């Protein structure tokens, strides 16, 4: 029983590490600006 719990804990830690890595390993200054898309969004009222 303890082996199953240990395996589940390991899987949970691995999942948390993968989510953490994908959330915070992006660009250092955020997403690149796209002035053309911003102008279109403002014109459409989005």
Quickly describe the structure.
Helix content is about 70%, strand content about 0%.
Protein model, in words:
- It is a single chain.
- The protein is mainly alpha-helical and 46 residues long.
- The chain has a domain at 1-25.
- Helix content is 72%, strand content 0%.
- The chain has helices spanning 2-24, 35-44.
Give the secondary structure arrangement, pairings included.
Elements: H1 2-24, H2 35-44
Largest sheet: none
Helix content: over 70%
Question: Strand portion, in percent?
Answer: under 5%
User: How much is the average pLDDT?
Assistant: 81
Radius of gyration, Cα only, in angstroms? Answer: 20 Å
Uncertain ranges: none
Class of secondary structure makeup: mainly alpha
Count of separate DSSP helical elements = 2
**Kindly, what is the distance between the CA atoms of the first and last residues, rounded to a whole number of angstroms?**
54 Å
SSE series = HH
Shape: rod-shaped
The total of beta strands comes to 0
């Amino acid at each position: 029983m303890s082996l199953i719990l240990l395996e589940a804990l390991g899987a949970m830690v691995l999942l948390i590490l993968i989510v953490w890595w994908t959330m915070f390993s992006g660009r250092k200054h955020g997403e690149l600006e796209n002035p053309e898309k911003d102008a279109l969004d403002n014109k459409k009222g989005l």
